[in-house]
Design a protein that fits this description.
- With 257 residues, this protein is mainly beta.
- It has three helices and 16 strands.
- Strands 1, 2, 3, 4, 5, 6 and 7 form a seven-stranded antiparallel sheet that branches. A five-stranded mixed sheet has the order 8-10-15-12-13, with no helix packed on it. The chain has a four-stranded antiparallel sheet with strand order 9-16-11-14.
- It is elongated, with a radius of gyration of 23 Å.
- It has helices at residues 108-111, 162-167, 237-240; strands at 13-19, 25-31, 36-52, 58-66, 73-78, 83-91, 97-106, 124-125, 129-136, 140-147, 152-158, 179-184, 190-193, 199-205, 210-218, 225-235.
């Protein structure tokens, strides 16, 4: 198809074709606002593959030139609005070229045990402990933790080390990014943010008796996905020190010489 209006519908699987130098191939698919779209290009000759939302706003693209012995390349995007979306394929080769890509719409049940948790209202409720989850592209995963104003929230995110990445078939070999860790108060104000890294930790005091939030964001939208471990500790005054709680003037500890 050479237009959005006449684009054929596609479902998950392998999509292939040959596109002329002055052509653009169009495809359409349906996805909901809790899904992730994942495209892995397995064969291309100077092709550009672009993803559009229902209003024809571009939300992702990849340019690929992949031979028989080359590694595949991918582009992954979270879906913001439910409905019809589009994919186009073009080429920069005189005379046209062929292409092939694997297309997947990742639903919450295919994602991880916390999905859908793509915004504050959908946050997965956590207590202390450690969980293994997955970040697709630049996806945000949100978690909620109940705290009182004398407690401290301690969160650590750890990715597999380089050896584990090489041995783990579930982690794309093209993965070179990291994750970012965020913390928010009950009003959804950001109170902590880490650098992009493969291992990071944030520790923040609770200021009110309320729900606080943790968010983990994949930091490489073209890496498809990566698995991570999130460990949450809620530190009570008895676990802190002999003076705790003393995080405000009104709760200051009396000291003498």
């Amino acid at each position: 198809s050479n237009s959005f209006d006449s684009a054929p519908s596609i479902s998950e699987g392998t999509i292939s074709g040959s596109v002329g130098e002055d052509e653009v191939h169009h495809y359409k698919f349906r996805a909901s606002d809790v899904d992730v779209v994942d495209i892995e290009v397995t064969s291309a000759d100077d092709n550009t593959i672009t993803i559009y939302d229902g209003l024809l706003n571009q939300i992702g693209d990849i340019s690929a030139d992949i031979g028989t012995n080359d590694s595949s390349k991918g582009v992954t995007r979270t879906i913001d609005d439910s409905g019809v979306h589009y994919i186009t394929v073009s080429t920069g080769v005189d005379g046209g070229s062929s292409y092939e890509f694997d297309f997947d719409v990742v639903t919450p049940s295919q994602n991880d045990n916390s999905s859908p948790n793509h915004n504050f209202s959908a946050s997965d409720q956590l207590t202390e402990g450690s969980i293994d989850r997955r970040a697709w592209g630049e996806e945000f995963d949100y978690y909620a933790v109940e705290l009182n104003d004398t407690e401290v929230l301690d969160a650590t995110v750890q990715l597999p080390n380089e050896e584990e990445l090489n041995d783990n078939e579930s982690v794309p070999v093209s993965y070179t990014g990291g994750v970012q860790l965020y913390m928010y108060d009950s009003e959804e104000n950001r109170i902590g943010e880490s650098e992009t890294t493969t291992s990071t930790r944030l520790v923040r005091d609770a200021e009110t008796n309320s729900t606080h939030y943790i968010a983990v964001q994949g930091a490489d939208q073209d890496s498809r996905y990566v698995d991570y471990n999130l460990t949450v500790n809620v530190i009570s005054p008895s676990e802190n020190d002999a003076s705790a709680p003393n995080d405000y003037i009104r709760s200051a500890t009396n000291v003498s010489e």
